[in-house]
Design goal:
Layout (H helix, E strand, L loop, with lengths): L2 E5 L6 H12 L2 E4 H10 L3 H11 L6 H13 L7 E4 L5 H13 L4 E8 L2 H15 L7 H15 L2 H7 L3 E5 L4 H13 L2
Parallel strand pairs: 1-3, 1-4, 2-3, 4-5
Helix pairs in contact: 1-9, 2-3, 2-4, 3-4, 4-5, 6-7
Protein name: Adenylate kinase
Subunit structure: Monomer.
Family: Belongs to the adenylate kinase family.
């Protein structure tokens, strides 16, 4: 299995790139947001547990998030690989993912980070917010808070994956096709 972690701040284009990459490489795209929405909407046991934290205004603990992702991966035993979008977000999630993948004789092949200037990304999100209906994409202060959380919690994962030789930064500015070509060049050289 070729497992890829897509990394980047909100608005960097992870979801857009995932759509192209899953088709090109026949990967299973697993978005943390989609997994959460499925579990909440279908009132699964994990969804019920997550709702308790969310209703209290707390972040869902790493262990519970990881359980949801493992359940999702296990639904695709014959996949060519997984394209992780939005997971892992913390060091403990990265370690848990590695442990899980090792247990099924697999591993993360690469972490591809879509990089772009914050001001460009903020404009992208504000533009997306005009049509997406997402409240968190319509308020510049909320966007900046999301970036602060990203910097504090997610950015340290770069060092974790760099130490394994699995971290690949990619310029996330340009046309969708140009960015897809850059990301594909990384995957093709794994």
């Amino acid at each position: 299995m070729t497992n890829i972690v897509l990394f980047g701040k909100p608005g960097a284009g992870k979801g857009t790139q995932a759509e192209f990459l899953k088709e090109k490489y026949k990967l299973t795209h697993i978005s943390t947001g989609d997994v959460f929405r499925f579990n909440l909407k279908n009132d699964t046991e994990l969804g019920k547990q997550a709702r308790v934290f969310m209703d209290a205004g707390d972040l869902v603990p790493d262990e519970l998030t990881t359980k949801m992702l493992i359940d999702e991966v296990n639904k695709h035993p014959n996949t060519n690989g997984i394209l992780f979008d939005g997971y892992p977000r913390t060091l403990s999630q990265s370690v848990a993912l590695d442990e899980f993948l090792t247990s099924i004789n697999s591993k993360v092949a690469a972490t591809i980070a879509l990089e772009a200037d914050d001001e460009i990304l903020i404009q992208r999100l504000l533009e997306r917010g005009k049509t997406s209906g997402r409240i968190d994409d319509q308020d510049e202060e909320k966007i900046r808070n999301r970036y602060q959380e990203y910097n504090e919690k997610t950015a340290p994962l770069m060092d974790y994956y760099k130490a394994q030789g699995k971290f690949f930064p990619v310029n996330g500015i340009g046309s969708i096709a140009e960015i897809t070509d850059r990301v594909s060049a990384v995957i093709d050289n794994l």
